[in-house]
Amino acid sequence: MQKLTSVYCEQIGQGGNWKVEDVYLNSPFSSCISAYNNIVFKIPLTGDGTKIAKSLEKYAFLKSINAPVPLFFEEVELDGIHGIATNNLNANKKEILYVSPNTARKMALTKDEKNIHTLLNSLSSEANQNENYTNAIFGKAEYELSNNKLQTIKNLTWVKHKLFDLASNCARNEICLSEDSVFFSVDIKNSKIDDVIIADFDCILLKQQVNIENNLKNLFRALLEFIQWFCEKNAIPEKEKSQIETLVNTKTI
Fold it and tell me: Strand, coil or helix: what is 225?
């Protein structure tokens, strides 16, 4: 296990399972891909010490079937704390922004920048369980996009095909996906979803008999939440939105 030291850390997100930091390192972190001065560091908040191992197992299996996952995902020790180092998806956020609809449920949505930074540094279990926090955003990227919503999604058909391929590949390999699993890569300038990546492994189940429809429902549910949080009203034609909602609400056996 590599032992790292930081020169700068900033908390960029937190949910019920992990605290997430944007970290610049004293010396580069060498992964199997390359060397990085900037990483995202995930620190487990709860559990019996197996949370890191379980996430690493799921990441490795998904990568083995060529599912879209981060470039690297490795256990490290940073400033004496054990966690997971992964590549910073939002390192180039001036052009591409990665957001998670899951994050958009976690903390109170506020237009006050000072308040959002306060929330980023002081999540409490009480707030996390409070019904007033149901419609919530707790992540810097999500907050940014919620204030710069897309007028449309120009490549919505491509996105739906992408989600179908992902649902199919995972079902064939006995992986049950959750709507919480995916991040959408957004090209804000061109009003497009550039990619879909699995970067949250907590709710993924391995070695499960699952049909494509079940996985697709969960992924389309994430797409609906993306539209809810990050697109202007009427950005998506009502007919197309209704088709997605019908699939999500259809009972599967």
Answer: helix
